[in-house]
Structures are given as structure tokens and as C-alpha cells.
Write a structure and sequence with these properties.
With about 575 residues, the protein is α+β, with helices and mostly antiparallel strands. The protein contains 18 helices and 19 strands. It folds into two domains: about 450 residues, Creatine Kinase, Chain A, domain 2; about 80 residues, no CATH class. The strands form four sheets. Strands 1, 2, 3, 4, 5, 6, 7, 10, 11, 12, 15, 16 and 17 form a 13-stranded mixed sheet that branches. It has a two-stranded antiparallel ribbon with strand order 8-9. Helix 4 crosses helix 9, helix 10 crosses helix 13 and helix 12 packs antiparallel against helix 13.
Length: about 575
């Protein structure tokens, strides 16, 4: 008989991008968002121990096991978001607790660094100009069955010459940047005393004044940053195409096929709601902007449902500095990243978003998912589902027929019910997910208003309706955005204060997650070393797979990949590698 080892045993984690809303209190001289990030991190370090991330992307890891990043390709151009990555977790409730702890920590650090009325943190997925950002979900999953896994590994070997050539060109590019930096420094020093305004020359050469070089955006002046961005895309294009082909042909093919109809219908339980440019209400903020099924997530304007940017970054960035990272992609289990999902404030919505997806993945990997309905036009159907709050629209199926999003969700619900019925020793939390999933679908069909405070899109629609029908688009859009503000003035936070919002977590769970990593995961080891050694005499840095203590020949490296719990307890044991060995992007 199958046992509980089949259920809720994978590593999971969330990545959430938070927007920084700047108020008029700054005046005309708005600060660079990179500088705001540095100030926020300084405030965060006053709340709990944190160390610099050992990675190409600017960020820190903290004692609760997670990370905070500055998310942008063009920092010198003035853009940027704050990205928070939860530690690696093992259950929906764990993810929910550590996500809520992350929300609270970042909101408090923002308030302490800037004051509530100068910079506000928004946890949403789209700004008033239509720019898309938001949340990604990461699930440890089986990359492919044996034959396709062999094909994936073979393609990785065949790509090695292209990989090595790309690395060589990147090193050459790095050398050119180094030569420019030396030449620009010598030019500035030679001209500094000859010019009346040397600061103007410094801003042209470096993107900041000379004295600020250690604190400015890490990519130099905006013109150099733009050139490097274009050149890097050209240099890596052949490799990107080759890796994309390998992913399309072999990576998670069966899983993607069986998971897709579930994800397309999932906004009915996990969408955060949105007012579009003409005032129509949609179930989801991010889903209507999806334009492909798989992709790298922004490399060429792609917004995929399944994103593999972390695979590509491992190959051209992580492995560029450490070639051994390349061979981590040969492991049979990897990180499946789903970009189709909104940033949730309602606890039930986030609990169901993660929990139902875990159950569906468990059922698929066990080989017990029945033949799933195939949606004929997935992206068009996704937009149709999101544009219909009545939940009555039918989407066309391959081979004829049609069904609603609720019918698709019930198909997966019943498949997961049969899967759990065969596993009487499955964790109680899995059955709680099933029960709440069914109750939510019943309420959506019979009484949507009963879910105010439980699902984000239902709650936001309720708040918008309170504004009245004659409210202008600008006013309604402000309400839309204000719903997501992580401050006492945010509309969801106000509802929470009135007792309308459904809470699944106890305050003690969130308080524990603010200070401690989840047990039995790589994060538990990372967090322990950060808490013990941060701020000490030795320099400490970390990434998702290692902790580094000290420098030079005496440096100690603690490997995290082998820390996994046994089935019977939370005791860490070395069993297999973690899919979080690469960048959490």
C-alpha cells in the first residue's frame, strides 16, 4: 500500500515582488530605488541577523532562512522592486506562515526606514501603468521519466560547446568592463582639478559622483547599463535557444500537460482581482497578461505560465563563475517554477493556491491522475475565465465539448480525493486542503459573498462595490492598488482589523516564522549559521546551496543540499540534492 511518503514531501517556496510606491513627500528629487533597497535592508538587519548573498544578484539571506533581493535588470535606469523569497518549506501551512512573516518583516522595515507616508510597500502584481511583476511558486518535482531524463542529460552534454563559448565571451565582456572602469577612473582623476564641475563628468562615466562609487547602482551609468544589457542578450542568444529547445522537448513535459488545465482554472480560488484599463473587473491581476506557456520570464518580453529562467541563469551565470553548477541540472528532481499566480493577502487563497497545486503534483507523479480535459486554446481560455466573475463561461476542449473553470477544478478535486483515499496515513494537512478546496468551490457556486475575507478577488470586488457605481476609473483603480498596501492604511489590512478576514494561522506561528527557519530543510541549517555567525569577526555570505564563513584558504563552506527530513521525523538526513541549489530568482 502507498504511504504518506507520497504526499507533501517536496520542497516548496514562494518568491514575491513588492512594489515601492513613493509619495509626493519626496518632492521632485525622487530617490533611486536601489538606494531605497539598501536603506530597507539596513532596517531589516536591525530586526534580525542577515548576511550578504553570494550571488550575481544583489541581496541578503536572513536568519529565518529566506532572502531579500533587489529585482531589476536596469538599476541605473531608476527602476526596481523588492523581492522576498521564503525559505524552503514542506507544507502549505509552513509556506503560509513564512510568507506572512516575510510580509510583516518587510512592511515594518519599510516603515522604519522611510516612514509610512514616504514609501509604501504594495504586494500586488500590476501597477497603474500596466507593468507586470508579482509572485512565482517553486515546487521540487520529477524532471522527466527515465527515457526523457536521458534525453535531457544528452542535450545538456551536446550543449556544452555552446556553453563554454558563451562563458568565454562573457569573460571577455567582463574584461572589457574592467578596462573601461580603469580607463574611466584614470580619466576622471586626470580631469578632476581641471574642471569646474567634475561631478558632471563622474555621473557620465560612473552614473554617480566619484565618492559614491561604493554605494551607487552596481552596473554603472545608465548608458553603459543599456549597452551591456543588449550585448549580453546577443551573446547568450544561441545558448538561450538551445536550452529552450531542450526544456520544451524533455523538461516536465508530462507534468506540464496534466497541470495546465488546473492552473488555467485556478484563478477562481487564488486570483487577487483587478480593474482593467476600461473598468472591467477580472478575477486575477497577472493571468490576463500571460502570453506563452513556457519561457524564461522577461528575457524577450515573454510572460510564461511555466518559467525556466532559473535553468538558463544557472547555465550562463552561476556556472559561468563555478562550472560545477552546470552539472546540478543533471539531477532527476529539479525546481518547477510557476509564474501564473497572484500575490495573495487572504490566507485561505494562498493556502489553497499552494496546497491544491501540491496535491495535484503528488497525484500526477504517483501516476494516478486520470486523463485530464485538454483545453483547446489555453491562453485565450485563461483570459476568458478571468474576465467572468460569474464563473459561468465555458472554455472549449480539444476533441469537442466545453466546461467551466469550476468544473475543471472539481475534476482535479475528485482525482486528488481518490489519491488520498488510497493513502490513509497521509498527513492531516492534505485532507484539510481537500476539505477547504471543496467547501470553497461549493461557496463559489452557491454564495460568493460568503467568501469575503477568504478569497482575494471576492474581497476586492466587495470593496469596489462599496465605492458605488458612479465612481470614476481613477478612483476605482486607486482602491484596487490600495487593497494591496502593506500598512495600516491598506484596505485589506483595514478589513482584517474589523474581523472580516478569515485567519488560518495563529499569531504565534507567524511570530515564530519571523525569527526561525522551517525545520528539516536546507533553510534550517542556513538560518542557524547566519544567526550564529552574522556580525562576528568572520565574513559570512550565503546562497541557496551553501554558507561561506571566512575568506581565502581558511574559508569554510557548509553544504546545504543534503539536509532533508526522514519520513518519520524532522531530523535532517543526507538523502539527495535540493532543487534550490541554484538562484531563487
Amino acid at each position: 500500500m502507498a504511504n504518506k511518503a507520497d504526499v507533501f514531501q517536496r520542497l516548496i517556496g514562494l518568491e514575491t515582488e513588492y512594489a515601492l510606491a513613493l509619495s509626493a513627500a519626496w518632492g521632485e528629487a525622487l530617490p533611486n530605488r536601489y538606494e531605497l533597497f539598501r536603506q530597507l535592508v539596513t532596517a531589516l538587519k536591525r530586526k534580525l541577523p542577515a548576511v550578504d548573498a553570494r550571488h550575481l544578484k544583489e541581496g541578503v539571506f536572513h536568519a529565518a532562512g529566506g532572502a531579500v533581493w533587489f529585482e531589476t535588470e536596469r538599476p541605473a535606469a531608476g527602476g526596481g522592486l523588492i523581492e522576498g523569497a521564503t525559505p524552503e518549506c514542506r507544507s502549505p501551512r509552513q509556506v503560509l506562515a513564512w510568507q506572512r512573516a516575510q510580509d510583516a518583516l518587510l512592511a515594518e522595515a519599510t516603515a522604519e526606514a522611510f516612514g509610512n507616508h514616504r514609501v509604501r510597500l504594495l504586494k500586488n502584481d500590476r501597477d497603474s501603468q500596466g507593468n507586470i511583476y508579482g509572485a512565482q511558486e517553486n515546487y521540487e518535482a520529477e524532471l522527466a521519466p527515465p527515457f526523457q531524463l536521458f534525453g535531457w542529460r544528452t542535450l545538456l552534454v551536446l550543449l556544452l560547446p555552446v556553453v563554454v563559448l558563451t562563458w568565454a565571451m562573457l569573460w571577455l565582456l567582463a574584461g572589457v568592463v574592467l578596462v573601461y572602469t580603469i580607463a574611466a577612473t584614470l580619466l576622471y582623476l586626470a580631469c578632476e582639478r581641471l574642471l569646474r564641475r567634475p561631478a558632471a563628468l563622474a555621473r557620465t562615466l560612473f552614473g554617480c559622483e566619484f565618492e559614491e562609487l561604493g554605494y551607487a547602482a552596481p552596473t554603472g551609468p545608465a548608458w553603459l547599463e543599456a549597452c551591456l544589457s543588449i550585448v549580453t542578450r546577443v551573446v547568450t542568444a544561441p545558448l538561450a535557444l538551445g536550452v529552450y529547445g531542450a526544456i520544451w522537448a524533455t523538461a516536465f513535459v508530462h507534468t506540464r500537460r496534466d497541470l495546465l488545465p488546473f492552473l488555467i482554472s485556478r484563478p477562481v480560488i487564488a486570483g487577487s482581482g483587478m480593474i482593467d484599463d476600461v473598468g472591467n473587473f477580472h478575477l486575477a491581476d497577472k493571468a490576463p497578461a500571460m502570453n506563452c506557456l513556457i519561457g524564461y520570464g522577461g528575457l524577450l518580453g515573454d510572460r510564461p505560465i511555466f518559467t525556466f529562467g532559473h535553468f538558463f541563469k544557472t547555465i550562463y551565470a552561476d556556472a559561468w563563475l563555478n562550472p560545477r553548477e552546470y552539472f546540478r541540472l543533471f539531477a532527476p528532481r529539479q525546481r518547477l517554477q510557476i509564474a501564473l499566480g497572484d500575490s495573495n493577502l487572504a490566507e485561505l487563497a494562498e493556502f489553497l493556491r499552494v496546497g491544491t497545486t501540491m496535491l495535484v503534483l503528488d497525484t500526477i507523479e504517483a501516476g494516478e491522475m486520470p486523463r485530464v480535459p485538454r483545453i483547446r486554446r489555453p491562453l485565450r481560455s485563461l483570459r476568458a475565465i478571468c474576465a467572468d466573475p460569474t464563473l459561468t463561461v465555458k472554455v472549449p476542449l480539444a476533441g469537442g465539448g466545453s466546461c467551466t473553470a469550476l468544473e475543471l477544478q472539481r475534476f482535479y478535486l475528485e482525482a486528488c480525493r481518490r489519491f488520498l483515499d488510497r493513502r490513509p496515513s497521509a498527513p492531516d494537512e492534505a485532507r484539510e486542503v481537500l476539505r477547504r478546496w471543496e467547501e470553497t468551490l461549493d461557496a463559489l457556486a452557491d454564495d460568493q459573498d460568503s467568501l469575503v475575507g477568504a478569497l482575494d478577488w471576492v474581497t476586492k470586488r466587495f470593496v469596489l462595490q462599496k465605492a458605488g457605481r458612479g465612481t470614476s476609473w481613477n478612483a476605482r483603480k486607486k482602491i484596487d492598488l490600495k487593497y494591496h498596501e502593506l500598512s495600516p492604511d491598506g484596505y485589506f489590512e483595514r478589513l482584517k482589523a474589523t474581523g472580516v478576514v478569515l485567519s488560518l494561522l495563529e499569531p504565534g506561528e507567524i511570530e515564530f516564522a519571523r525569527r526561525n527557519p522551517p525545520s528539516g530543510t536546507p533553510a534550517s541549517v542556513r538560518g542557524r549559521y547566519i544567526r550564529e555567525f552574522a556580525g562576528g569577526d568572520e565574513v559570512v555570505t550565503a546562497n541557496w546551496s551553501k554558507v561561506y564563513i571566512g575568506r581565502g584558504r581558511r574559508q569554510k563552506v557548509i553544504l546545504l543540499a543534503g539536509y532533508r527530513p526522514t519520513i518519520a521525523s524532522d531530523t535532517p538526513t543526507a538523502k539527495s540534492e535540493s532543487p534550490y541549489d541554484s538562484d531563487a530568482n
